[in-house]
Amino acid sequence: MIKTIFYDLGNVLVNFDWKTSAIRIADHSTRSPEEVYHICAGSKLARKYECGIITTAFFFETLKKEIGFKLTSEELHGLWSDIFTLNKKNVAVLDKIRKTYPVGLISNTNEAHVHWIEKQFGFLGWFPHPTYSYIEGCMKPQKEIFRSALTALSVTAKESLFIDDLNQNVLAARELGMQVIHLSPEKDLELELKKFDVKVT
């Protein structure tokens, strides 16, 4: 029986577009959009930030130097964070579910993006004990981050359902004993939840 439902954040509750952001940043940079995209989205620097190894201030000062950004760190912060759009349908489902089930959040993310998403969309407060990689010091699919989330909500793996868009993350959760939904783009979240007898009312 499902007692608690854990969500991923990116491409489940919010969608994101790094490429558009990279173009906007490159307009004020000495680097090409392709180079900016790689540094912002997939570099060791970005991974260190998402693991909480470096601070927000250090990240943006270092990023500014690496890409030759000509404006302020604060302006870079804004352009770098403005990549998200709300998945209104999935957030509406979450809003219904949270009235019946405890809900958790397990996300590979960073301090700047968490603050930005909460300011823009306001739903992160629905999660009483969110689990973020930059606080935990580890990232999905590492099992430690799932264990931290389960402990935070005092629930066992077998009583939990985890929703994520990436296969490697749902596989890791399943190996721990969690039930899972691999939410690929063509799937409807509400229909997938009903397969687990989750009441969406």
Outline of this structure?
This protein has 201 residues and is of the alpha/beta class. Helix content is 48%, strand content 13%. It has a 5-stranded parallel sheet with strand order 5-4-1-6-7. A two-stranded antiparallel ribbon has the order 2-3.
Protein described:
The structure is a single chain. The chain is an alpha/beta fold. It folds into two domains: 4-15 and 85-194, 3-Layer(aba) Sandwich (Rossmann fold), CATH 3.40.50.1000; 18-81. It is built from eleven helices and seven strands. The strands form two sheets. Strands 5-4-1-6-7 form a five-stranded parallel sheet. Strands 2-3 form a two-stranded antiparallel sheet. Strand 4, helix 7 and strand 5 (131-132) form a beta-alpha-beta unit. Helix 1 (18-26) crosses helix 2, helix 1 (18-26) packs antiparallel against helix 5 and helix 4 packs across helix 5 (73-81). The protein is elongated and about 55 Å long. The model has no long low-confidence stretch (mean pLDDT 96).
Present the secondary structure layout.
Elements: E1 4-7, E2 14-16, H1 18-26, H2 33-42, H3 44-50, H4 56-67, H5 73-81, E3 84-86, H6 88-97, E4 103-107, H7 111-121, E5 131-132, H8 133-136, H9 143-152, E6 160-164, H10 167-175, E7 179-182, H11 189-194
Parallel strand pairs: 1-4, 1-6, 4-5, 6-7
Antiparallel strand pairs: 2-3
Q: Radius of gyration, rounded? A: 18 Å
Question: Order of strands across the widest beta sheet?
Answer: 5-4-1-6-7
How many discrete structural domains? 2
CATH level 1 class label of the largest domain: Alpha Beta
CATH superfamily of the largest domain: HAD superfamily/HAD-like
Order of helices and strands: EEHHHHHEHEHEHHEHEH
User: Could you say what the CATH topology of the largest domain is called?
Assistant: Rossmann fold
Largest sheet: 5 strands, parallel
Enumerate the spans where pLDDT stays under 50 for 5 or more consecutive residues: none
